[in-house]
Amino acid sequence: MDNVVTEDEAVLLKTAEEQLVGFEELLDDVYLDNVVDFEEFLRLRRARKEILEYTLHKALADGLITHDERQLLIRIIELLPLVR
């Protein structure tokens, strides 16, 4: 990453931020009782998948994923808890 945020990267970051708000709300529900019930598990898994798909869709909007956008996508994947 070159420490310069292009317009495409800014859109990608904004998209990820908007999507992560809902994910954090789901995590708050889990942390209330420190138990992940099956419904919470399904919601977390669905939310993670939607975040990744939506963010990737935004990155592909111009038909090209730059190296820096790719690095941002990798960071987003790394930050989201793995929910299988």
Question: How many E strands?
Answer: 0
Terminal-residue CA separation: 29 Å
Whole-number count of domains: 1
Question: In percent, how helical is the residue content?
Answer: over 70%
List its traits:
84 residues, mainly alpha, 0% strand, elongated
Structure description:
The structure is a single chain. This protein has 84 residues and is mainly α. The chain has one domain. It has three helices and no strands. Helix 1 (7-33) runs antiparallel to helix 2 and helix 1 (7-33) packs parallel to helix 3. The model has no long low-confidence stretch (mean pLDDT 85).
Short description:
The chain is mainly α. The protein has helices spanning 7-33, 38-59, 67-79.
Task: Annotate the secondary structure layout.
Elements: H1 7-33, H2 38-59, H3 67-79
Helix pairs in contact: 1-2, 1-3, 2-3
